[in-house]
Amino acid sequence: MSLCKWIIRIVGVLYLFALALLLIGTFGLFGQERDPLAGVFLMPLGMPWVLWLNGLPDEILPWLAAMAPLLNLAILTLLCRYFHGGRTDK
Q: For 85, which DSSP code?
């Protein structure tokens, strides 16, 4: 299994973990208090795209910020396929 595949998996797990923390903190699940900074762990995973969201309507900002790490995952996957000849199982 290649290093590239491991990096994609690690970033994917970190994204799911940060998304879970966002949902738990935002909606107060499992008895947690609501926390306005619950999405802080999604910010570094979504860089640099979250910096370009300035000026968009406030209604869609949380959704776009939560989905920005998916763009990084897609880029990583495409780079791995490109450098490994279309396969990520090398």
A: T
Which has the minimum average pLDDT: 3-12, 31-40, 74-83?
A: 31-40
Listed by start position, the domains of the chain span 3-83
Residue 62 to residue 65: CA distance in whole angstroms? 5
Closest CA to 83 of 5, 14, 27: 5
Burial of 82 from C-beta contacts in 10 A (0-12 / 13-18 / 19+): exposed
The one-letter code for the residue type at 7 is: I
- First-residue to last-residue Cα distance in the chain: 6
**Spatial separation of the C-alpha atoms in residues 85 and 44, rounded to whole Å:** 29
What are 31-65's pLDDT values in tens digits? Answer: 878 887 888 889 999 999 999 988 899 889 888 98
